[in-house]
Amino acid sequence: QAQLVESGGDFVQPGGSLRLSCAASGFTLDRHTIAWFRQDPGKEREGVSCIYGADDKTFYADSVKGRFTISRDNDKNTVYLQMNDLKPEDTATYYCSTQRVQPGDHCTVVLGFYRAMDYWGKGTLVTVSS
User: Fold this and answer.
1) pLDDT class for 42, splitting at 50, 70, 90?
2) How many CB atoms are located within 10 Å of the residue 14 CB?
């Protein structure tokens, strides 16, 4: 059974940093497109960042570009989201996701269409506040 488990969410002050982890079990993340989404209650799920399975190119929403970095560690079967210079508007539950097939849809599709994803973790809460 394929599973994704996010961790690393916390309460942090504006300007702070966090690193989120997305650990996979039941399958290998290598060559899968992996995306991070976030959601506030009452809002649509928003694509944040994605790493494409075919070539590991990375993509970011404009709102996080230059502050967030997505990376993959195949030995640990884990994808990370390094978040720097956090802002109150980054407050949300963050989810990682992937598709059954390799490499899956391109990140430019995935980030705008969360329903394309097949597997989701349960999320990790990030709160940015002074």
Assistant:
1) confident
2) 13
